[in-house]
Protein 1
Amino acid sequence: MTPSDATPARVAAIDVARAVAVIGVVVNHSIDGMVGAGLIGDGHPLERLNAALYVFRMPALALLLGLFIPRSVARRGVAGYLAHRGAVLVWLYLLWFALQSSIESLTSDYKNLERPWGAIVRVWEPFAHLWFLPFLLVASAVLAVLQPWRGRARQVLAGGGLVLVGVLLWGWDRNVVGLTGLSLLAFAAVGSMLGLARLGGWMQRSAAGWAAAGVAAGAVFLALLQLGPVPGTLPEDVGYLTRAVSALAAAAGTLALLAVAVLLSRSAPVAAFLAAIGRRTLPVYLAHVVIVAGVRVALGAVGVDQPVVIVVVAVLAGVGLPFAAAVFADGRPWASWLFDLPEPLRRRLPRPRARQPLPAPEPNTVAAANAVAPQSGPLRAVRRVQPEN
C-alpha cells in the first residue's frame, strides 16, 4: 500500500480548496449570464476577471477530485469502484439533465437562450455545466484502470502520458457525452498521483512558504495571461504552443488557488465555514446554474442592474441554497436522491472492502506533518476521514 492509498485524517485546507474552486465556478456562470444578457460587455472588469478564472478553475477542481480516487479504488477494488462511481454519476447526470432541461424550457421566455422541449431526450448532448459528470466517469475509469499513482514506472508512463494527452487535447471539444473536457485528464491524473496524504501533508506546512509559492504562482499566471491562454474546456482551435502555455497557466492558477486555501484555513472560523461548503461541492455544482440565472432575472425585474450587486447576490444564492438543500437532504432518503444514488439502488452495489490496518505514517503523510508543524492551528487534522467524491 502506498501513502496515497492510506486513509488520511481530514485536512481543512483540502476542503477549503474545493470550496474556493466551486465558488469560482459559480462566479464564472454568474458573470456569463450577465454577458449573455448584455448587462456587461467586452473589457468590463468582471468580464476580464471571468476570462482569467476560466483558465484554471476547472483544472483546479479536477485535480482536487483526482486526490480521492486512489483511496476509493483501494477500498472497493477497480470493478466495485467503477460500479459505484458509474451508478452515481449516470443517475445524477440523467436526473439533472431532465430537471434542468425542463426548467430551462419552461423559462425560455425569460432567459438569454431558448431550450426546446425536444432537447430533453437528447441526453447524449450535454449542455451547460452538466458535461462535467460524464467527464468524471471517463476520468474515473481511465485512472482506476491505469492507476498512475502505483510505482515510478506507472507515474512516468501512465501519469506522464495522461498529462501529455491533456495538453494535446486542450481546447478540443465535441458536444457528445464523455468527449467534453478531456484536457482535464492531465489535472485529474496529477491529483491521483499526489494523493490525499501527500498533498494534505504539504498543506500543513509553513504558511509563509505557501504565501511565497502563491505569490510566485500568481505572478507566473499573470505573465502567461498576457500570452492569451485559452480554457481547456471550451472549443478553441489553437496551436500546440498556445495549448502548452494555457496548460502552464492553468497549473500556475491551480497552485495559487491551493496557496489561498492554505492561508484561508489558518483562520478557524473561515476554515470551518469554507470546509463545510467544500464537503458539498457536488450539490453546489449541480444546482447553481438554475439559481444564478433566476437571481439575475428576478433582480432585473425589480430594476436592479448593477453588475457587482447581481454577482454578489447570485453567488450567495448559488452557493447557499444548494448547500442548505444538501444539508437538509442528509439522512432523509426521500430527499437525498437529488444529490446521491437512491437507497434502493445503492443497496444493489458491491459493498466496500473491509478496512485494512494502515501502515506506519511516512514523512509526507498528514500525521507526520502535524508532528513537525504543530503551529498549523485550524489546519490540524481532526478525527474524521475525507468522504469519497
Protein 2
Amino acid sequence: MTTTRMRTPLKSILPGLRTSIFLGPMANAAGGTLAGKVSKAGGLGFIGAGYYTAEKMKDELNKALAILGVQQQDSSQQKHPRVHLGIGFLTWRLTVLNNGKKPSSKEAEDDNSPAIQLIDAALRINPIAIWLSFGDEEEMIGWSSVVRKRDALLNGDHGPENQVKLFIGIGNEKQARSGVEDCGADVLIIQGNEAGGHGLGSSPPLSAIVPLLANKLDSGTYKITNPSQSVPPLLGAGGIMTGANMAGVLAMGADGVVVGTRMLMTPEAAYSDAQKKMLIEAGPTSTLRTMAFDEARNTLGWPEGVDGRGLVNDTVNDYMSNKGGDGDARRAVYKEAEKSGDTSRIVTWAGTGVGLVHEIKDADEIVAEMTRDCRKSIEHLAEGLKQFQ
C-alpha cells in the first residue's frame, strides 16, 4: 500500500539556495568560475569534474571559493559550515580512473587510486552536494556509497540532516527507482531527451517523464533510503533556456530546474568564443542526438544507450552519410580540424532550446533574469485562470 508523503523543500536541504536554478555539471565547460558565479547568485553551481585530475579539481575549486569568498577550511575541524557549491562526477569515468575496478569490490577503495583522490579533493572543501550520473546500476550504487563514506572520513559525522547531499542523475523511471532506493538520493534529476550533451538516447521528453516521477515520489511508490529519510525533490533538465521554460517544468511537478546550454552562453563558461558564437547563431532545429562526436573524439566509454545532443556540423554530416571511410579515418579528419582550428567540425553540445536566446550574458544576470521571468510567467498564468473561476 502506498502512502502520500511530501517531497522535501529544496530550501531545507540547501539553506543557501535563493532560487531553484541549478547549473548542470558540464564536463570541460562548467568550471569553478561558472559554478561559483551561479552559486553566488543564489542558485547552486556544479563543477563538471568528469575528466579532471585531482590537481585540476583543486585549481577549479579554488576559483569557485574565491568567488564565494570562502577560505579553504581544515577538514580536521568538525561541523564547519558546508560550502554552497556542488561537484559532478561521471561514474563510468570514476571506474576508469579506478583501474577499471567497480567500487563493489573491497580493493576498489584504495587511497592511492586516482578516482578516490579526485573524490577526496572535492570533498575536502566540505561541499553541500555531489552529483553522480552516467554509470551502470552497480557503478551508481557503489560510487554513491563511496562518496558517503569518504565524506564522513574527511569531514566528520554531521548527522543525517547535514551530510553531503547526493544528487543522482537519471534518464528513465527504472533508473529513478534505483536512484532513490539503492543510491539513497537526496535530490533526483531527470534528464529529458531535449538535453544537450550526453544523455540516455531513449529518455522521454520532460513533458512525459516529470509528471510520472513526481506522482511516484508523492505517492510513496519508492522506498526512501537517504540518511534523513526525506522524499527527494525532483529537478528537470533539458531544453530550459528561459524563465517561461522554467515555469513550465515547475508546473509539470518538478521542484527545480537544471540549466546547461544557456549557461554556456556566458563569459564564465569554458567554451571557446567560436563555440559561443555558434550557439548564439543556432536555431531551434540546429541540434541532433548522435554518436558522431564521440566517434570523432574517441570518447566511447559511455554506458550503453547513451549518446549526445549537439549542433549539427560537418562531423555529424560525415558520420550520418558514412563519408570518409571508417571511424579511424573520420577521427583523423577531426584531429586535423582541431589542429587547424576548423570550427566547421568542432564539438558544441547544445539542447533543443538553443534557438531561444541569441546573446552572451553574465551567469549571475541569467540566474536573476530567469527567476524574475519565471515568476512573471506563473503570475500571468494565474491571472489568465481567474477568468474561468
